[in-house]
Each structure stands twice: as C-alpha cells, then as structure tokens.
Amino acid sequence: MNGWLEHLPILPVAIPLMVGALMLMLRDSQRRARLVLSFASLAAQMYVAITLLCLTAGYIPSEWPDGVGVYLLGDWPAPFGIVAVVDRLSTIMLVLTSVLGTATWFYATARWDRSGVHFHPLFQFLLMGLNGAFLTGDLFNLFVFFEVLLAASYGLMLHGSGKARVAAGLHYIVVNLVASFLLLIAMALIYGVTGTLNMADLAARAGELAGPDRRLFETGAAILGIAFLIKAAAWPLNFWLPAAYANACSPVAGIFAIMTKVGIYALLRIGSLLLPTGAPAAFGGEWMFPVGMATLIFGAIGLLAAPQAERQAGYCIIMSSGTLLAALGMPGVTLTGPALFYLISSVLALGAFFMLLEMVERTQTFGADVLAVSLEAFDLEDPEAADTSDDVVGVAIPAAMAFLGMAFIACALLVTGLPPLSGFVAKFSLLSAALQTSATDSPSVAAWMLVAGVLVSGLAGIIALGRTGIRLFWSSDDSVTPRLRLVEAGPVGALILACVALTFWAGPVMSLVEETAKYLDRPATYINAVLTQSPIRGVAPGVHP
Predict the structure, then answer these.
(1) What is the share, in percent, of the chain residues with pLDDT greater than 70?
(2) Mean pLDDT computed over 142-162
(3) Model confidence over 252-271: pLDDT tens digits?
(4) Which of the pair, 442 or 187, is modelled with greater confidence?
(5) What is the predicted pLDDT for the residue at 365?
(6) Which residues pair with 69 in a beta bridge?
(7) Residue 354 near residue 471, CB atoms below 8 Å
(8) In angstroms, rounded to a whole number, what is the distance separating the alpha carbons of residues 324 and 234?
(9) Using CA atoms, how far apart are residues 506 and 498, in angstroms rounded to an integer?
(10) Which of 38, 85, 89, 367 is 20 to 30 Å from 71 at the Cα level?
(11) How far apart are CA 196 and CA 227, in angstroms?
C-alpha cells in the first residue's frame, strides 16, 4: 500500500480539525472563504470515508488483514500508544456521517449559518468528534472525542439564540455533562483493575479477571454502559431529547440525528469485543433488550402525545434508538445486520425530516417562531419575501406545496416502516430475523415481544404522523405557499433519494451489513489486528520502545 493510503485512517479526524482551526482565524465577514473551506473539507471527508469503506469491504485490494486497518499515532505500538482502527463497522458510520453532514451543511448555508457566530468551525469540530469516536481504539480517546463533539454540539444547540432554545440547551448540556462524569468514573475503575484502556487489550485481559477484580470490572462496565445509554437516549434517561431537538435550528437537529447512534455504536463495539470473556450485563441482552423495549414503548407514547411536529421527530429518534437497542440485545448476531441497515435508513430519514419540518412550518402563518426570532436578531432575509434569484425551486405556486407534501409522505413512510421505501425493508428484515433467533421450532418470547413492539410503534407512527400531515397540509385555511431555495430543498430531496437508493440496492447493502455482523462475531480479528500491528521503525508489538 502506498504512502498516502497508509495515512487515510487518520484523515477523517485531521481534515475537520485543521479546517475548523483555520476558519477560526477568519473574520465573520469572510463568509465566502469559510464556505469554500467547509465545502472542500466535506468533499475530502466524503472521498476518504468511501475509500476506507471500499478498502475494508474488499472492493479495493489492500494489505490490511481481514479488512482491519490500524494506524499507530506517533508510531507507538498498542496498547501503549493511541491507535485508530478502521473496519467495516467504523467505515459504515463514517460514510453515514459524511452524507448526513454534507446535506445538513448545504441546508444551513441558505440562512442558518448567519444566525450566529462560528457556525462553520463548530460544525467541523462536531464532524471531527463523530469521526474520531468511530475510529478510536481505546476508551480514553473515545471519551475525548465524545467531549469534542459535545462541546461543538453545545454551541450549535444554542445557535440562533431564543429563550426556548437556551432553556432546552441548558438541559441538554447538564445531562451530557453527567454522562461524561460517569464515563470518567467507569474508565477509572476499569483501568484500576485491568491496567489498560485499549479496547483490544482490554478484551484480552478481561477474561483473566476473577473474584473481587471481576466484580469491580463488572461495576465499571455497568457504569460505562449507563453513560452510553444516556447518550443513546435510552429510557428513562432520555427526557431531555425531544425539547432539545425540537428547539435546535433545523440543520443542527438534522445532524443531531446521528448523535444518539454514537452511544449505540459504543455499546455494539465494546460488547462485541467483550463477548468471548462473558460480556458484562451492561452490554448484553440482560440490559439492552428490556431497556430497548421500554425506550421503544416510551417513544411511541410520546409520539402520539406530542403536539408539535418537531417534538414528534424527537420521539421518532427515541423510537429508532429503542428499536436498535432491543434488536442488538437479542442473542447472537442474527439481528445485527438488519439493525445496521435500519440504523442507516433511520438516520437519513430523520435528518431529512427535521429539515423538512422547518420548511413546512413556513406554510403556517402562525408558525416559525424560532426562525422569526433569529431573522430579527441577525437581520436576515425573510424566507417568504420576494426572491428573484435563480436558485429557487418553483415559484409561489402549489408546486412548492407538492414538494413539501410528497417529502413529508416519504419521511413518514420511512419512519413508520411502510412500503415501498428502505424503512420497510429494514423493519421487515428485522422482524424476519427476530423470528429466526430461537434454536427451537417456535420463536422465543423476546422475539415475539420485539415483533410486537416494532409493529405497535409503527402503528403509532402512522396515526401520529398522519394526523400531523392532515393538520399541516389539509386543515389549515390560512396557510401560505413558501418559496423554497434549491440549497434547502436539494438536501432534503437528496437524503430521501438516498433512502430510495437503499431500497433499490438493498441486496448489496444488506450483504455488506451481514458481513459486518459476522465480523463482529469474531472479535479475535479486531484484537489480533490491533495488538500485532508493528510500528514503522520496527519495534516489536507489546514491547515498550
């Protein structure tokens, strides 16, 4: 493998870090320069993520054994140094982050990036934290990247000001600070018992623990699991999410659609590595399945009860987290592949949904309170004002309403899992796999509970979103037809089309995620790749230079 390919695994972190730092040196008036730098960064991240996915999946020949690439920062071997690990799971998340980030950034450039300061640097640092969390090979740097993305999300959460946004943002900050504190406690306990925080080394040592050390390790793992469940918006630790996401500006809420999946990724990653050692309860079905079912039920009830469309979208996020936790809490890896397919589809759909709802809100003469506050505070143009520029989708005629209506229907179909889009493929594959998890002739009780939960939550989504669609598009006599810019309608349409593409290419994508599930069932592949990676200057792995 040539020189530049060897450094690919660190570029998803290095690119947004350098671009974000460079943009901090630019004045607020230099918006065009910031736009150019942001676009170049997003394009580079997209290219790197797709290339890494092709390398790990075997579409491009590489020297990485079993499709696992290990990058030793500072050329220090594991477990002494910091490592970035690239495999099928991490690259799927990288590509998903890149696609969603690009779409939400384009939407924000219409007006939201000017409703506050430092939007573009914060956006880059958020992407850096997300990418780093998916790539890191040790718990401490997982905590570091969590803090990076959270620090950036705090600024983005408050972007645009407004009383409701600040109140919800403070709750969001407090809850995540508590989760971060729990992470530190858990890592201290685990390090005190095992002497390592490298995930591969931890998996190798955990199986050797016994007696009091094993119980202390289980305690640390339980606290670690609780912290990840908070970040995954699991019940009863998710009351902060609907208000926070509903009051964030629409492109920020769109990129936040993947934030809860970072916690689920961490649970899946660490749980799969600890599986041969007798995975602690925090990462097994003893916790994840009942918590997932409770989260799914809570999300469905909240979706039915929520009066605002934006809060309904927040409860859809909770429902998706509950579905994933329940599926991943089932025994074996039969449901892991369909769960990953569902994760991809739900993140894309909900990212589009949050941005779509802001455009739909403009049709209501009483709505868009948060947008109005931002426009007045930062002297931005009115989205309903006359616009003679060329980047307009249609004019003030029902064609704009047709786009909004069709996009709303598509998002509703994706969220509820109705045919013919990828949401249906994802839920159908989940249900089919759930009924195959039992080794006996009849499916287990847990499998039937999951089937019932998924179907009932889907029915709740149909009722709630159908009611909201009627209220927004049919029952309002004083609605107005908004003007939609291409830079706003385009990202929403692109994410929906991406879900359509998932439907058409469901076979190849399902094959990829199924292979990923089988790979996760063989944690020795990951462990051996990390612990046997030799530094360039030839120091033997496991030996302190």
Answers:
(1) 86
(2) 85
(3) 888 998 988 998 998 888 88
(4) 187
(5) 55
(6) 86
(7) no
(8) 10
(9) 11
(10) 38
(11) 19
Whether 91 and 52 have beta carbons less than 8 Å apart is answered as yes
CA–CA separation, 192 vs 60, rounded Å? 42
User: What are the φ and ψ backbone dihedral angles of 505, each rounded to 5 degrees?
Assistant: -105, 35
Contact of 281 with 318, CB cutoff 8 Å: no
DSSP 484: E
Q: Angle of helix 259-274 relative to helix 88-108, nearest 10 degrees?
A: 180
* 420 contact partners, CB below 8 Å, separation of at least 6: 413, 503
| Token pair in block for residue 197 | 């925080």
d(CA 221, CA 289): 17
* This prediction's pTM: 0.86
Residue 330 identity (one-letter amino acid): M
d(CA 356, CA 499): 15
Token representation of residue 507: 């076979």
Q: What is the DSSP string of 148-200?
A: HHHHHHHHHHTTT--HHHHHHHHHHHHHHHHHHHHHHHHHHHHHHHHS--BHH
Looking at residue 91, its amino acid is: T
Q: What is the mean pLDDT of the chain?
A: 82
DSSP 135: H
Q: Are 411 and 353 in contact (CB under 8 A)?
A: yes
Are 384 and 483 a contacting pair, CB within 8 Å? yes
Contact between 45 and 127 under an 8 Å Cβ cutoff? The reply is yes
Annotate 283-314 with three-state secondary structure.
Answer: HCHHHHHHHHHHHHHHHHHHHHHCCCHHHHHH
